[in-house]
Amino acid sequence: MAVKLVGPGDPGGRRDRWLVRIDWSNHRKTRVFRAEQAARAYAGNAETLLAVGHWRDVFEARAHTPEPGTLEEYWTAWYAGHTPGWDQRTAEIYAGYWEGHLEPALGSRRLVDVGRADIRGLIQKLQAKGLAARTVRCVIAPLKSCLQQAVDDDLLVKNPAARILVPEARAVRKALPVLTQDEQETLLASNMPERSRVAVLLGLRAGLRVGEVAGLQWDDLDLAGGVLTVRRKIYDGRVGDTKSKRSRQVDISPTLRDALLAWRASQTPVSAWILGNGT
Prior knowledge:
Elements: E1 3-6, E2 18-24, E3 27-33, H1 36-51, H2 56-59, H3 71-82, H4 88-106, H5 116-128, H6 133-152, H7 181-189, H8 194-206, H9 210-214, E4 221-222, E5 227-230, E6 233-235, E7 238-240, E8 248-251, H10 254-265
Helix pairs in contact: 3-6, 4-6, 8-10
């Protein structure tokens, strides 16, 4: 054996890493990679160097890994390799960040040419579009992770997105419109299906978000204690954790309690979900 590529799960390999083992004329060396692409590139280059007698370039220095392509090419491989470990919503959000913000600005750039000035320029453009600092940080986060893997794969020397601060925008954030008490009463007195009225009451009287209202089950209701436990949300048809990742209890007003009891009495059969079908 001169150069051997050992993948995850192979005998003598690691669970989530690629190994390149080199054994040549009493010289031995092992390199570890996260990405298969980088490992194969390194192994191929080492074989070439050994074939032409440049063994010192392999054992006394790092065998040169061929220069990667564009950021888009590396992102595509990085995204595909990590998607199985993400929930579907995270994968969709990252894909949206890439298609809407990252790819138009940096996708065509060579990976090795992406610098800190490019990241700062992207941040300025995003804030110029009106994105809040918190949203900009969310957009930059997957790019930062992608570039960090490129560093781990020996494709970059440093992560250009590391330790770059996103300044807070000076503009004052506008407060969301809130219904007045009279407007709430007018809404509740309007002609609407009872199911919709219960949903509106849960939002107005219990302060629940739309997804949390959809995610309520009758087992979450404690009539004796007068409380409702918010344990989950439903977003885009999928059940998930609440925004805070923690359950919480909210008090039930007499009006809400009566509306919930009347709604349950009208259901035949009674679903496990308060609004009937979890949507």
